[in-house]
Design goal:
The complex is a heterodimer of chains A (234) and B (281). With 234 residues, chain A is α+β, with helices and mostly antiparallel strands. Chain A has helices at 2-34, 187-191, and strands spanning 80-85, 90-97, 118-121, 131-136, 140-141, 144-145, 159-164, 169-181, 197-209, 214-229. The chains are: A alpha+beta (234), B alpha/beta (281). Chains A and B meet through helix 1, strand 4, strand 5, strand 6 and strand 9 of A and helix 2 of B.
Chain lengths: 234, 281
C-alpha cells in the first residue's frame, strides 16, 4: 500500500511539466493564428483598358495632351515632406523616388532605414500642383506590415493630407480605390495629364506570384485636391 | 458647323466686330421678313441661344438659331442651326421690321448665357441689364401693350425691343426682359429685337430676352508639357510578401513542438507507471 501511494507522487513533476508544455504550445499556436495580418484589398482587380482615363488622356503609354482647362484649386509647386492618412493611421515622412535603370519606378530600398516611409515620384507634379502627383509606399516588409499596408481599406472621401516644403498642407479627398494586375497596370490613369491637382497613391496588392516573389497586383488610390491649409510661402 | 458659320457671315447674319476686350460677333435672325424680297411672312417663331465663355484669356461661343413657321412656308433658312466660334457673340438683332404684310403672330426669343472666369479683365462689376422697350407700340385702336419692365426708356440700353411695333388696330405686344438679367463689362451685350414689327391690324408680337452672367472660379491654362515628365514602365514593386501567407510560422512550429513533446512525456509517464505497477505485483 505504501508503494502504491508513493508512485503518483514520484511521477507528478513529469505530469506537471507535460501539462505546462501543452498549455504553452496551445498558447503559442493561438497567438500565432489570431495575430495573422493580411492587407485589405479593394473588391476586385480592374482591367486597365476598361478604366476611365483622366481628362485629356488617350490610350498608350505616354502622357496625353494637356487638357484645355483647369478645374478647381491648383497650388504652386512645392515638394512633399509628410503624408498623413488619418483613416488608416498613416503618418510618414516622404522621400524622393526616381527611376530604376529598367525604367520602372524606384521604391524605398529594402534594408534601408527609410524602407517603411512613403516616397514621392520626383518626375510627377508635386502634390497640389496641376497633374497627378504620385506617392508610393510598401505594403509590407520582412518584419510585417509597412506604411501602406491598409491603403486598400480606404473609402471615398477619406482625407489625405500632404505637408509641403513651403509650409502649406494640401488636403485631398479620395475619388477611388482600385486594384490592378501589374501585367495591365493603368499607366494613363496613373501618370496621364489631368485637368486638376490630383494625387495617386500606389502599393502592392493581391497574392504573391511564386515565380517572381512579388505581389501580382497594385492597389491604386485616386484623390483630388479640395483645399489647402496654410499659405504657400515664397 | 464652321461652314454654316461662314455662310451666316456671307449672308450678313453673323458679322465680326471688334471690342477692346476680345473678338466679337453679331448674330441676326428673322429680320425684314415680308413684305419685300424675302417673301410674305407666316406665323413665325424665332429663337437665338448664345453661350459665351471666357476662361483664362481664351474665348469661345456657341450659337443656336431656330426658326419655325406654323401657318405656311417660310423663306429658306428654317430649322435649327448651331455654330461655334472663338469670337464672343455680343450683338443680337432679331425680328426687326418683320411680319408687316398681314396679321400673324410672331414670337421671338433671345437667351444669352455668359460664363466668365473671375480672373478675366473687366469681369466685374456685374450689373442688371437695362431696357428700352415698347416705346410707340400698340398705338392702334384696341391695341394691347403688356411689357415688363414698363416704361423702359434707357438710352443705349442693353436690350432695345418692341419699339414701334404692333400698331395696327387690335395689335398686341407682349415683351419681357428677364428680371434677373445681368451683364458684365467683359462681354458688352446688345440685343435689338422686334422693333418695327407686326404692324398690320391684329398682329401679335411676343418677344423675350434673358441674359445670364456667371462669374466662374479662376482657372489657369495648362501647359502642353506632359505633367509627368518620365513615365515609369510597368507596375510598382512595393511589398516583401511577409503578410501574404502564413505569418508567425516560428511560433506555430514552437507551439506544435511543445504539444508534441508534452504528448511524448505523458506517454512515457504512463508507460512508466504501468511498468511500476506490474513490478509491485
Amino acid at each position: 500500500m505504501k508503494a502504491a501511494h508513493r508512485r503518483p507522487a514520484r511521477h507528478r513533476p513529469l505530469a506537471v511539466t507535460s501539462g505546462l508544455l501543452a498549455l504553452a504550445g496551445i498558447a503559442c499556436m493561438v497567438f500565432a493564428i489570431t495575430h495573422q495580418q493580411h492587407a485589405a484589398q479593394p473588391s476586385s482587380v480592374t482591367k486597365a483598358s476598361s478604366d476611365r482615363s483622366p481628362a485629356g488622356a488617350t490610350a498608350g503609354d505616354r502622357p496625353a495632351a494637356s487638357p484645355t482647362s483647369v478645374m478647381g484649386l491648383v497650388l504652386p509647386s512645392s515638394v512633399p515632406v509628410i503624408i498623413r492618412i488619418p483613416a488608416i493611421g498613416v503618418s510618414s515622412p516622404v522621400q524622393l523616388l526616381g527611376q530604376n535603370s529598367d525604367g520602372s519606378m524606384q521604391v524605398p530600398a529594402p534594408g534601408s532605414p527609410r524602407y517603411d516611409q512613403a516616397g514621392w515620384y520626383r518626375y510627377s507634379p508635386t502634390p497640389g500642383a496641376l497633374g497627378p502627383a504620385v506617392i508610393a509606399g510598401h505594403l509590407d516588409s520582412v518584419d510585417g506590415p509597412s506604411v501602406f499596408f491598409r491603403l486598400g481599406s480606404l473609402h471615398l472621401n477619406d482625407a489625405v493630407l500632404v505637408t509641403r516644403a513651403d509650409g502649406s498642407v494640401a488636403v485631398f479627398t479620395i475619388d477611388g480605390v482600385r486594384r490592378y494586375a501589374k501585367s495591365s497596370f493603368p499607366t494613363q490613369l496613373v501618370y496621364g495629364n489631368t485637368d486638376h491637382a490630383a494625387l495617386r497613391l500606389i502599393t502592392c496588392g493581391g497574392s504573391i506570384d511564386p515565380a517572381t516573389g512579388h505581389y501580382r497586383d497594385n492597389v491604386v488610390v485616386l484623390a483630388s485636391l479640395v483645399r489647402v491649409v496654410g499659405q504657400p510661402s515664397a | 458647323m464652321m461652314l454654316f458659320a461662314g455662310a451666316l457671315v456671307l449672308a450678313g447674319l453673323v458679322v465680326p466686330t471688334s471690342s477692346a476686350f476680345a473678338a466679337t460677333t453679331s448674330v441676326g435672325q428673322c429680320n425684314n421678313n415680308g413684305p419685300g424680297p424675302m417673301g410674305a411672312t407666316t406665323a413665325m417663331t424665332c429663337t437665338v441661344t448664345v453661350v459665351n465663355t471666357i476662361t483664362s484669356g481664351t474665348t469661345h461661343s456657341t450659337t443656336t438659331l431656330t426658326r419655325q413657321c406654323s401657318l405656311g412656308p417660310c423663306a429658306p433658312g428654317n430649322g435649327t442651326f448651331t455654330s461655334s466660334s472663338t469670337s464672343l457673340v455680343t450683338n443680337v438683332n432679331q425680328c426687326n421690321g418683320s411680319d408687316n404684310d398681314s396679321a400673324h403672330p410672331i414670337t421671338c426669343r433671345v437667351t444669352i448665357t455668359n460664363n466668365i472666369s473671375a480672373d478675366t479683365s473687366g469681369a466685374h462689376p456685374v450689373s442688371a441689364a437695362t431696357s428700352n422697350q415698347c416705346v410707340g407700340s400698340g398705338t392702334g385702336g384696341g391695341g394691347t401693350v403688356n411689357c415688363l419692365p414698363f416704361p423702359a426708356t434707357t438710352t443705349g440700353a442693353t436690350v432695345t425691343q418692341c419699339n414701334g411695333s404692333g400698331n395696327g388696330g387690335g395689335g398686341t405686344v407682349h415683351c419681357t426682359v428677364g428680371s434677373a438679367s445681368k451683364i458684365s463689362p467683359a462681354i458688352p451685350i446688345r440685343v435689338n429685337q422686334c422693333n418695327g414689327t407686326g404692324n398690320p391690324g391684329g398682329s401679335v408680337v411676343t418677344c423675350l430676352t434673358s441674359i445670364t452672367t456667371n462669374i466662374t472660379a479662376a482657372g489657369i491654362t495648362a501647359s502642353a508639357t506632359p505633367q509627368v515628365s518620365r513615365v515609369p514602365t510597368g507596375g510598382v514593386q512595393t511589398g516583401n510578401g511577409s503578410t501574404a501567407g502564413l505569418q508567425h510560422l516560428g511560433l506555430l512550429t514552437a507551439g506544435w513542438l511543445m504539444l508534441f513533446a508534452a504528448a511524448g512525456m505523458e506517454r512515457a509517464r504512463r508507460r512508466h507507471c504501468e511498468g511500476a505497477e506490474l513490478d509491485s505485483r
